[in-house]
């Protein structure tokens, strides 16, 4: 194992948040395998979740979400080809995953505004048997619930009128983070890439005074997500104009590790640590993070007190990427 190196934490960015002393240590870096889709070889990883020495990996399917996949790997073999899971239900544009109350939860982006796109609007769940064969699958529409909560709790009708009919990358609803909640291990937190909260947020097509780079990131907590879902909290975080591209709650250090990224498709990303009980928000400066082309998943292994930050490696912008994951310890 490489020698562990301490990671420095950045200064506090907002006077409403305080500083916390949590040390993350760099452990390793590497690459997960590429897979072949119609004569094209790439890796479009967008989600990851851990349970009992195994990792569920979600892939959003490349351009237009053509080939969405769920794969299963052992944690110790994450750099080896993962086994494709044959699902009974269809789900498009996979963007987030976590493990809650015995179920792997998987979220679509929820970004499609058209009514005939139900497969893009789902939260699904997979229960496995002890031999890791599928025992049961669940699904629950989630887009309308979250949109309604944003309208009711953020209380800005002009902002809502801009984001409700818009496509995700143009300022509408777009989920890319999913985590167990810090408040209750049976609740889930959705992290929104878009919209950002703020009176000036919106696509410039609504007017020159609006921008997709201004506003605070949004977290939405949902109870009983696969049975009787209800929004129980909406939280906003100042991430320097970034939305949320990946996240996971780490109970041992009482905080969320969050990947921030722009609403439009770009390659500037940030890494944050948020402790809700003390309202601590810190921007992290971690070696090799800048080498990840499009980091979109945070994988937490509480058994080893390790975190893996995973990136996709598809598209022209990611050609030549030397690594697509880094491993940290805490």
Care to describe what's here?
The chain is mainly beta. 6% of the residues lie in helices and 44% in strands. The strands form six sheets. It has a five-stranded antiparallel beta sheet with strand order 1-3-24-23-22, with no helix packed on it.
What's the arrangement of secondary structure elements?
Blueprint: E1 5-6, E2 9-12, E3 25-30, E4 35-37, E5 40-42, E6 45-51, E7 54-59, E8 69-74, E9 83-84, E10 94-100, E11 103-108, E12 122-128, E13 134-141, H1 143-154, H2 157-163, E14 174-180, E15 188-197, E16 216-223, E17 230-237, E18 243-250, E19 255-261, E20 270-275, E21 280-284, E22 294-301, E23 306-312, E24 325-329
Shape: globular
- Which structural class do you get from the secondary structure elements? mainly beta
Number of helices: 2
User: Which radius of gyration do the C-alpha atoms yield?
Assistant: 18 Å
Low-confidence stretches: 1-19
The largest pleated sheet is described as: 5 strands, antiparallel
Query: How much strand content do the residues show?
Result: 35-45%
Number of strands: 24
Q: What is the spatial order of strands in the main beta sheet? A: 1-3-24-23-22
Query: H/E order of the elements?
Result: EEEEEEEEEEEEEHHEEEEEEEEEEE
- What is the overall pLDDT average? 90
Considering DSSP H and I runs of 4 or more, what fraction of the residues is helical? under 10%
CA-CA gap between termini: 15 Å
What are the key terms here?
mainly beta, 330 residues
In short:
With 330 residues, the protein is mainly beta.
